[in-house]
Predict the structure.
Amino acid sequence: MPVSIVHVVRSPFDNISTLYRKHREHEDAFWATPTLDDAIRLYFNLCRRVLTIKATCGRFVHQVYGDDLITNRYGEIHRLLGFLDLEATPGYVDAAAKRIFTEPSRTRRQIDWQPRQIDEVYRCIEEVDFLDRYRSEPFHLPEAA
């Protein structure tokens, strides 16, 4: 049976913050990230694993960026359904589009980041091609309007 992999990418700062926050909320969480530094290490270890999977199974991996899904929900849903070789019926696409957040979750705002940690994330971004778009993303993003 063929396997298709959907890889959803969002800002590393928000993913790392979520990993860290979830551990703090649930001490028995699957990912043991007691410190923000641990969460940074775990995140980039996972990124390296994704790179390996993509190198091995590239044509079976569909990548979608969370921000693109929010700003172009119908286009991204159609791309995903095309990748999965599924019919994009209007009712299904509309129902799926309604389930997508209207703005990204910026969990980085909930965590106290040290400048050295921010610098470390930017350094590690350089090593992960699917994070290219975040190389110049400012850490301090404006609040949503």
In short: Helices lie at 12-25, 36-57, 66-71, 73-83, 90-98, 115-125. The first strand starts at residue 5 and ends at 9. The chain has six helices and two strands. The two ends are 46 Å apart (CA to CA).
